[in-house]
Amino acid sequence: MKLLRYGNPGQERPGMLDADGRLRDLSAFVADIDEQALSRHGLSQLAALDPGSLPIVADSDSVRLGAPVARVSKIICVGMNYADHAAETNAPVPEQPVLFMKATTSIVGANDDVMIPRGSVKTDWEVELGIVIGEVTRDVSKAEALNHVAGYLVVNDVSERAFQLEHGGQWDKGKGCDTFGPLGPWLVTKDEVPDPQNLDLWLEVNGHRYQRGNTRTMVFGAAHLVSYISRYMTLLPGDVISSGTPAGVGLGLHPPTYLKPGDVMELGIAGLGRQRQRVVAHPADAR
To answer: Is 143 exposed, middle or buried (0-12, 13-18, 19+ CB in 10 A)?
Structure first.
């Protein structure tokens, strides 16, 4: 299934795509794409529905898609999880996953604008596979880890490199700015992703392809990450693990290249959909 949320910010309704790519309304069956819908029981109930019996959303080609998961309690990001990305940033390949958090206030829809923070000159892009948790997960084994996953989605881990690397302390400052967490366009349930370690991913800015890779080159795969992270914190339904990015970020280019107002990012992962964001200036910098 491809589950989604559509409508204006703060007023999103639950939906799904049918086999022909038409948007169907789910609000008669679930209140939202939340912890209940993402549980094994909730997903099995949704899978039993006949999509053809659900109402078609009017003007679905123009309707806004919000983040496909409601009430995310945390976004856990994994740094340097592709060897080629570590190399381009002159960092060693980690022996254990490098973890940091991304503020949930950064979350926006897949095609919403991305706003450059006030005074920023180093706003960057990162296409990543997002792993969405479906069950309360504590200290789960690697063998059982993917049984706790509801599905997968596209993440753009937008980053401000000066905030991240030059303002002292941890990376979180450069990761959690408003609009820095586009998710979606939809959540693809795990039954439609038989191997999360064989997915092509890519990102373009203004039509130029900067990133291309495949999740098979991840240093630590999805099962390893779910198991490892659950050792240190409880994962809740709807939590998102953003699993790292391949080479081709602006920081790693020669010379480094960063986003500016008017740029357009397009990115996607095979089978999981694509995103498109217009880059806009912060109001304080637009005057």
So the answer is: exposed
Task: Name the residue with tokens 């609009």.
Answer: 179
| Whole-angstrom distance, CA of residue 150 vs CA of residue 46 | 12
Q: Are 104 and 232 in contact (CB under 8 A)?
A: no
For 41-62, write each residue's pLDDT tens digit: 999 999 999 999 999 998 888 9
In 3D space, the residue among 259, 88, 79 whose CA is nearest the CA of residue 179 turns out to be 259
Contact between residue 44 and residue 80 where contact means Cβ atoms under 8 Å apart: no
Q: How far apart are the C-alpha atoms of 112 and 279, rounded to whole Å?
A: 9
pLDDT tens digits, 134-145: 999 999 999 999
Q: The pTM is what?
A: 0.96
β partners of residue 202? 212, 268
